[in-house]
Design a protein that fits this description.
Elements lengths: L4 E3 H4 L5 E11 L9 E8 L10 E8 L8 E7 L5 E2 L5 E8 L2 E3 L6 E3 L1 H8 L5 E9 L11 E7 L4 H13 L7 E7 L24 E7 L11 H6 L2 H8 L4 E7 L3 H13 L2 H13 L3 E5 L1
Parallel strand pairs: 1-15, 11-12, 11-14, 12-13, 14-15
Antiparallel strand pairs: 2-3, 2-10, 3-7, 4-5, 4-10, 6-7, 8-9
Helix pairs in contact: 6-7
């Protein structure tokens, strides 16, 4: 698999385990949203746990031994800058969405193991984690580079940390940042709603703009309307995609890949022209996907 295109679950195998304690767990979706997403703050027992912006951690949720597994393993992107708790231990924030899935054979709905395990943890509960693991959402060395960030659902978490890091710690940043966040409804716009509105603090920056891509009929489970959000800014985006210093970072569900390819193919004028442009971006490490 290309280093620029990877699945979150396949990126890293479980390694050394560490004990972490839940310090806080709060919903970051608004009341009335169909989805429950919680921001979970963990305090790691290892004082020198060396995590950085752009990394992720693995969570080991207990599994049923009858199915041949001791643990169910999932990775979660770190959703904030590295920090320490009052005790001096590393403190990590992640976003977890309570999930369920439908069995292909029985048609029955079952709760997702890792997501429900995490969402059910409360302050004081201990869990096992692994990592930290590095990912490819780096800050370009060229401070004039432009970033196109496209995230759906909890895929916005690594971009929250990345944008915060750029505007807090990279004093000479001059490139444009265009953030596209997809969700089924405005109630599920993580970090851009009444529960958490972290991105609002950057709206007065000349280099930053953020856009919503919502489902036109969320109650019918219609797909996110990436075409409306992206094609409205098509001229600027196609111009940015033609610049040798533009980086595109994509995070979210795997089905985003096909949806975005269709939208960008229309911007390019044909699927072949888009695939050539995308191949150039991927080969240069300037199109990076993190899908699950």
């Amino acid at each position: 698999m290309s280093e620029a295109i990877r699945h979150l679950e396949e990126a890293f195998e479980p390694a050394e385990r560490h004990r972490a304690v839940v310090v806080a767990s709060e919903p970051i979706t608004e009341a009335g949203a169909d989805a429950e997403v919680r921001e979970i703050v963990l305090e790691v027992d290892r004082p020198d746990f060396p995590y950085e912006v752009g990394q992720c951690i693995g969570v080991l949720a207990p599994a049923d031994p009858a199915f041949g597994k001791e643990h169910h393993y999932r990775l979660y992107s770190v959703a904030d800058l590295p920090e320490r708790s009052a005790s001096g231990r590393p403190s990590i924030r992640i976003a977890a969405r309570r999930c369920s899935y439908i069995d292909d054979y029985s048609g029955e709905r079952y709760p997702g193991i890792a997501s429900n395990y995490l969402c059910d943890r409360r302050p004081g509960d201990a869990i096992e984690i692994t990592g930290p693991f590095g990912l490819a959402f780096d800050v370009p060395e060229d401070r004039d580079a432009d970033l196109i960030l496209i995230g759906s659902g909890t895929g916005i978490a690594p971009f929250r940390a990345l944008v915060k890091h750029i505007y807090r710690n990279v004093s000479d940043w001059r490139g444009k940042i265009r953030l596209f966040h997809g969700a089924r409804s405005g109630l599920e716009m993580l970090y851009r709603n009444d529960a958490r509105d972290d991105f609002a603090q950057y709206c007065d920056r000349e280099t930053f703009e953020a856009f919503q891509a919502l489902s036109p009929r969320p109650s019918w489970a219609d797909p996110i309307a990436w075409d409306l959000a992206i094609e409205e800014r098509g001229e600027e985006l196609w111009d940015l995609l033609g610049k040798p210093s533009t980086h595109v970072y994509v995070a979210g569900l795997e089905k985003m890949r096909d949806e975005l390819d269709k939208v960008f193919a229309r911007l390019a004028g044909s699927p072949d022209k888009w695939q050539r442009r995308k191949a150039e971006l991927v080969a240069g490490g300037r199109w990076v996907e993190l899908l699950y």
